[in-house]
Amino acid sequence: MTGANGFSVSGYGPQRPVWARLFARDSLARRLDWPILLAAIALSLIGAALVYSATRNRTELNQGDPYYFLVRHLLNSGIGFALMIGTVWLGHRTLRTAVPILYGISVFLILLVLTPLGATINGSHAWIKLPGGFSLQPSEFVKITIILGMAMLLAARVDAGDKPYPDHRTVLQSLGLATVPILIVLLMPDLGSVMVMVIIVLGILLASGASNRWVFGLMGTGAVGAITVWQLGILDEYQINRFAAFANPELDPAGVGYNTNQARIAIGSGGLFGTGLGKGSQTTGQFVPEQQTDFVFTVAGEELGFLGAGLILLLLGVVLWRACRIARETTELYGTIVAAGIIAWFAFQSFENVGMTLGIMPVAGLPLPFVSYGGSSMFAVWVAVGLLQSIRVQRPMSA
Predict the structure, then answer these.
(1) Under a CB-based contact definition with an 8 Å cutoff, are residues 235 and 189 in contact?
(2) d(CA 197, CA 223)
(3) Helix %, strand %, coil % of the chain (to 5)
(4) 219 SS3 class
(5) Which of 44, 48, 99, 266 might form a disulfide with 302, Cβ 3.0–4.6 angstroms?
(6) What is the rounded distance in angstroms from the CA atom of residue 172 to the CA atom of residue 245?
């Protein structure tokens, strides 16, 4: 005989075993999206193996410790996982009320990059140096605040039942909110992050139900803006050279085109099954620059082959598929917009990262989500996973 709380009246403890109560229909564990969680964990672990292979012989980087980057990558993943748990615990609806504070902090941090506290790493002046040899890339967290901020504005009156879809004034306000940090990041200049943010904004507008005229107008404005940036010389020379090398792969193969040429050689040499982890000649010979960060996919292509690289793409596809399902099943526009912004972010950044290693996209200095080495990126993508899990956990049980 049991009481209302599920414990036996006779005092012998729970009627159901612990595992059964943990995965009961109304439990948190049961309501989590496990495919997303397991796929993200698998990507982080695969990334750890690739980062180790790419850096174990780089004595000029690893301070003589072959496990230096491996340990830090696993530590970053662990911290990111903890941030995901914290995000689920707080909930996306609670974070909705904190958007003004989060937005102010993120804008303040990217402004710090433009001060003497900012640092240049790999040609991009987008970092803040911290004590202990750590660094912070604030633009990674700006992606999250843009998503939350635009979702808060666009969904406010719709979720309240006042409007069937966002009106023009609301759309204009949300675009103004996103424009401020995007312009600051452009001044760094961090063109790769700007590209991702623009795609996020487009994805959010499409999901919000706003008039398609805003989407087409934004695309036209983006094209005009790109031409203006080019003509005004805002971009650094190395960024212009990257686009030139993309347009003409044979341009300066030993200079500006070196990265992409070596990346294609590394991926092409892997074949179907790869050369084996730690046995790739391009990786061990250190012919591909920045293999632990921007070009980590080349390690997978060479050492794990087509099957291993395909597994990474499959796992990223699982994350995107489940995120699309979460966006579709939530009953509030706010949750739909947040999920859509994350989908646009992950999809474009993954496509750009893999595409630049294959020569079908220009080099833009963007990490591969969950896989590339980098604390700021790892923390941001895990917070995004936490937002997706929160949207799923807090949906009605009948959904």
Answers:
(1) yes
(2) 15
(3) 65, 5, 30
(4) helix
(5) 266
(6) 37
